[in-house]
Design brief:
The structure is a single chain. The chain is built from six helices and eleven strands. With 244 residues, it is α/β, with parallel strands linked by helices. The chain folds into two domains: 79 residues, no CATH class; 148 residues, 2-Layer Sandwich (Zincin-like). α3 crosses α4, α4 packs across α5 and α4 crosses α6. The longest helix has 27 residues. The site of zinc ion has 3 residues, from loops.
């Protein structure tokens, strides 16, 4: 019954992994406890081809897995319709902040990563290429997000606190009550208008910590892209999580 003991450190939240058999194959379920969850939820993790099961504290793991089994058809269908994966390798074409960038492996460049003329030239051993591209992408994401966040916050006469980049699966951005912002670094693959909307949305929370009419008025003042961006993320969000 270890699973029911809350971990001492918040960050080390425990995940229990299980595999369920379904008529069309096996599905890996990662079960997580959430003290604030009021009911069980199940969603697809597009990066890891598995399902995330969120359990309120009062629901037993076995009951949660039964719930997941009862949704086997839905899980299989969702996993089957995930977009193709795009690996960071020589010749791969990425969209980076609206720019088309083809990865070129150039061992002779050493540890350097250079973007020129639509190419991302990555030096060093092939085994290190993925990590170098990832670091470069996160730095690009951070630069773009920091610039946007500062600009948008200034329009509201506000200043944000720390900005954290995460590889979050369930949300593209968040704003905490102390004014810190957090974003999924994978937004770097989205069109600039989408990034603009996500950043504007979180910055508007610096003033209104809710999703009421006044909040949406602020978002509208900051960005014209709300509806298009929401639609784009609904349609393409999973693809962003299939890169790298
Ligand atoms: Zn919000």
């Amino acid at each position: 019954m270890n699973f029911f003991i809350r971990p001492k450190k918040k960050l080390a939240a425990k995940t229990h992994e299980a595999v369920i058999e379904t008529p069309r194959g096996r599905v890996t379920i990662k079960a997580k406890r959430n003290r604030r969850a009021r009911r069980m939820t199940l969603r697809i993790d597009a990066t890891h081809d598995c399902a995330i099961l969120v359990l309120p504290t009062y629901v037993a793991l076995a009951e949660g897995l039964d719930f997941a089994r009862s949704k086997a058809d839905w899980l299989q269908a969702k996993l089957a319709e995930l977009p193709e994966r795009l690996a960071f390798a020589d010749g791969a074409l990425l969209q980076v902040l609206g720019r088309r960038v083809t990865i070129r492996h150039e061992p002779g460049l050493g540890a350097r990563v250079i973007e020129t003329d639509g190419e991302l030239r990555v030096g060093g051993e092939a085994a290190l290429l993925r990590g170098r591209v990832l670091r470069w992408l996160k730095a690009e994401a951070r630069r773009a997000i920091l610039t946007l966040a500062a600009e948008r916050a200034a329009l509201l006469g506000k200043k944000h606190k720390r900005v954290t980049l995460r590889d979050s699966r369930s949300r593209w951005g968040s704003c905490s009550s102390d004014g810190s912002l957090s974003f999924c670094w994978r937004l770097v693959f989205a069109p600039p208008a989408v990034l603009d909307y996500v950043v504007s949305h979180e910055v508007a929370h610096l003033v209104e910590m809710n999703h009421g009419p006044r909040f949406w008025e602020l978002v509208e003042r900051l960005t014209p892209h709300r509806e298009a961006a929401r639609r784009w993320l609904a349609e393409n969000g999973a693809a962003l999580q299939r890169q790298g």
